[in-house]
Write a structure and sequence with these properties.
Largest sheet: 5 strands, mixed
Radius of gyration: 53 Å
Distance between the termini: 131 Å
Structural class: alpha+beta
Helix content: 40-55%
Number of strands: 11
């Protein structure tokens, strides 16, 4: 069985041999972002008047220590350590500053302190850029951060500690020094606060995870006697567990979440669950208030809760734990729901005790350096390859043209055109006449071309009216305003756009089509033909305007006469056809009556005998097509006749 170590009481011989487990990043040859650190055991000092950041530099008195903390050398080491680099010695820092004298001499600084401050910032910026350039040049895959920090002790021992135990934003190079500082006992011992809440179950505890400084390890006076048993590292100082009914069984989710998503449910169970949530919140906040002094002394505060349950601990008036507290942590491994157990079982079987043991117990593995190297190579091979950097595309080539801002006059002009085309398309003649009297000059005349910004392929107002099928507007444009019918349509006009009621001359090329070709009704085309007959000298009607012929009053009367005669002939032919059909039907009836023999006496007797009610099948044919009311009336008459026939037979 492998030996177990507590994270706050590691053996000193093991600490002295530990090195950061960073073989994965050492596989690639990278330049250090900062100059090599000149750290030796002689430079490291553990006295009170020393600087752990600047390689353990010791000071004679407090004034010298304060002046060091204000120096640029210390400020540079602090900044570079936060960036993940290594601190440098004072001589190396002086060489770095000398290399920047040329760049800083040209800057107009107000005083010497400002210039030195610029030197520190410039050095840090240069080191950051060089590190980024090295990474981009190498194209090494990005190694995901692990929840466990590993340390290696030759020849074949590795220990792992959860990253959450260290202070936030701790640089990689400082994990080993932080681990050594964690071994130093403090007064009263290190304390943690641990809280878990889920499904209405709550568990909380205040735990001391390391021995206090005053609790020295007893040394036996007599070697023959057994040393007394040392006190345990972990001691539960306070604990509390309780449960409230807040979640419906086998459904999941609290009642408040269900109310927010589906609306407030009205049932006894829902009311009980709402009360349970309120009671749970009040109980937890009351417990935090009772443990307020102990929580303030805790080094870490661990909370396992959902987003909604996390508000129980934070963000309320008079809260004990602030939202931005640096001590707040979440458990870096999967956890189960806390279950309320008795006091005797809380240390061994509860979920809270399991998490405490997982956090404080050091993970141990035994691999040789060769095994570790093989693992690193396999891990690097399993990482996804870095995506290639996208090539920068000049935005000037693909930039969209910005919409042109219109002046007030242009906006008014466009509004006039929109109103004009709308009235022509809808056939509103009277408003069009009054509008034209006011705005004819500003529009530019009846034959002005429709602007391109409208997006209409029709060129003139006459073409719009002809295609819309409003003969009154076409007549007004031709006779009163003398619109030009010879203007051809746009060359981009397609035959599909003119589908539906197009004229019989639509087979002409699109570049030669005129208003007459766009007319969708005979009435509109007749207006154009009448105008051509009344005023043949106005335009080239039969050439450029593509009007086939003029339509004078004589021609129109002749066409109407022909139409009337055609209708009259059709009516006469219909009458003759009906008379012929009637004569044929009467002749057929007479012929059938002559050929039918007289009924015999036996047939007469059979017909005079009792018959079936309702008549024969021929009687049923007589009611086909009648309404239900008429059928009932016919049926009543048939029954009455049958009754009269039966009475006549009885009288005989």
């Amino acid at each position: 069985m492998s030996q177990r170590y507590h994270v706050f009481s590691l053996p000193l011989d093991l600490l002295d041999t530990l090195t950061p487990r960073n073989l994965v990043t050492n596989q690639t040859t990278r330049r250090d972002p900062s100059p090599p650190a000149v750290a030796t055991k002689e430079q490291t000092s553990t006295s009170a008047r020393s600087c752990n950041v600047c390689l353990g530099t010791a000071f004679a008195d407090i004034d010298e220590q304060r002046s060091h903390f204000r120096s640029d050398w210390h400020r540079y080491n602090v900044k570079i350590r936060l960036k993940g680099g290594d601190p440098v010695s004072e001589s190396v820092f002086a060489q770095l500053v000398e290399g920047l004298e040329d760049s800083l001499s040209g800057s107009a600084s107000e005083d010497e302190s400002a210039e030195e401050s610029d030197a520190v910032d410039t050095l840090v910026t240069r080191i950051k850029r060089s590190a980024l350039s090295d990474i981009s040049e190498e194209g090494a895959p990005k190694v995901p951060a692990s929840a466990v920090i590993w340390f290696h002790s030759p020849p074949a021992t590795q220990i792992g500690i959860y990253r959450m135990l260290f202070p936030l934003e701790t640089p990689t190079a400082a994990y080993l020094s932080e681990l050594k500082e964690m071994q130093t006992p403090i007064e009263g011992g290190r304390k943690w606060a641990m809280f878990m809440v889920a499904g209405g179950h709550f568990a909380g505890a205040i735990v001391r995870v390391s021995r206090a400084a005053e609790e020295e390890v007893p040394v036996p006076v007599n070697a023959r006697k057994k040393p007394p048993k040392p006190k345990p590292e972990t001691i539960v100082m306070k604990h509390k567990t309780f449960h409230r009914y807040t979640t419906r069984r086998k459904q999941g989710g609290s009642q408040s979440i269900n109310d927010n998503s589906k609306g407030a449910a009205i049932s006894a169970g829902a009311m009980l669950r709402r009360y349970g949530e309120q009671a749970l919140r009040d109980d937890i906040r009351g417990l935090l208030q009772d443990w307020a002094e102990d929580i303030r002394e805790c080094e870490r505060i661990w909370i396992r809760a959902s987003v909604s349950n996390r508000r129980i601990f934070l963000d309320y008036e008079g809260c004990v734990i602030n939202k931005g507290d640096d001590r707040l942590r979440t458990f870096p491994f999967p956890t189960r729901r806390p279950v309320s157990l008795s006091v005797l079982r809380v240390l061994t079987q509860s979920e809270l005790s399991r998490c405490l043991l997982e956090l404080t117990q050091v993970k141990i593995s035994h691999y040789t350096e060769e095994d570790l190297r093989v693992q690193d190579e396999a891990f690097l091979a399993s990482l996804p390859k870095p995506k290639p950097q996208p090539t920068s595309v000049s935005t000037t080539d693909i930039a969209k043209p910005k919409p042109q801002r219109l002046t007030k006059e242009e906006e008014i002009y466009r509004e006039k055109w929109s109103r004009l085309l709308g009235m022509i398309t809808k056939g509103r003649l009277e408003p069009l006449k009054s509008f034209w009297e006011r705005e004819a000059e500003s529009i530019g005349g009846v034959n002005v071309a429709i602007p391109e910004w409208i997006g209409d392929r029709r060129v003139s107002l006459l073409q719009v009216a002809a295609q819309s099928g409003h003969e009154e507007i076409v007549r007004w444009l031709l006779y009163d305003l003398r619109a030009d019918p010879t203007i051809p349509v746009s060359a981009g006009w397609t035959k599909a756009e003119d589908a539906g009621g197009e004229s019989d001359t639509s087979d002409v090329p699109s570049s030669r089509r005129t208003a007459y070709d766009l007319a969708r009704s005979r009435a509109v085309r007749d207006v154009l033909r009448r105008c051509a007959a009344d005023h043949p000298d106005w335009w080239d009607w039969f050439g450029a305007a593509r009007v086939p012929s003029g339509l004078s009053k004589e021609k129109e009367e002749e066409r109407d006469d022909k139409r009337k005669q055609r209708r009259k002939g059709l009516k006469e032919r219909m009458r003759e056809r009906e008379a012929n059909e009637m004569s044929r039907s009467t002749a057929a009836e007479e012929a059938s009556g002559a050929m039918t023999p007289e009924p015999s006496k036996t047939q007469m007797e059979s017909h005079s005998g009792p018959q079936r009610l309702g008549g024969s099948s021929g009687a049923t044919d007589g009611v086909v097509g009648l309404t239900a009311e008429m059928k009932a009336k016919v049926e009543r008459e048939r029954r009455a006749r049958a009754a009269e026939a039966r009475l006549a037979l009885l009288r005989r």
